[in-house]
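User: My notes are a mess, but here's the protein and zinc ion's SMILES. Can you give me a structure?
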Amino acid sequence: MSCEIVERMAACGACRTLAVDYGLNLINSRRHGANPRDWELPLTTARIELDHHLITVHAAWLPERQPGCDVCEVWRGDHVIGPMDEAEALHRAWHLCEPVRAVCTPGNHELTRLM
Ligand SMILES: [Zn+2]
Ligand SMILES: [Zn+2]
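Assistant: No problem, the inputs look usable. Here's the predicted complex:
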């Protein structure tokens, strides 16, 4: 099983590197008994690098405001004129990466196999 966003990322060299790095850190963070001191910083760093790449290079991939998400609902009332706020772009990048996070569980190396 695969999904569209993972396939798109697999076609971009930078996405492949950054997404695998993020994915591996995410898998480590989800291991039973994992110590936040071991994974928190590398996971945050990997996520920031991936998000930054997504919002600067692949802004066209960012999804619409998601129904049922409180954060998106807050923005729904605003009319977006001109470029999207960086905070909102980062939040949409977080939605974009949902399928990536879904496959990054201990024992599931689907992401690293795909990329
Ligand atoms: Zn990319
Ligand atoms: Zn949202």
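The mean pLDDT is 90.
User: Great, I'll file this with my notes.
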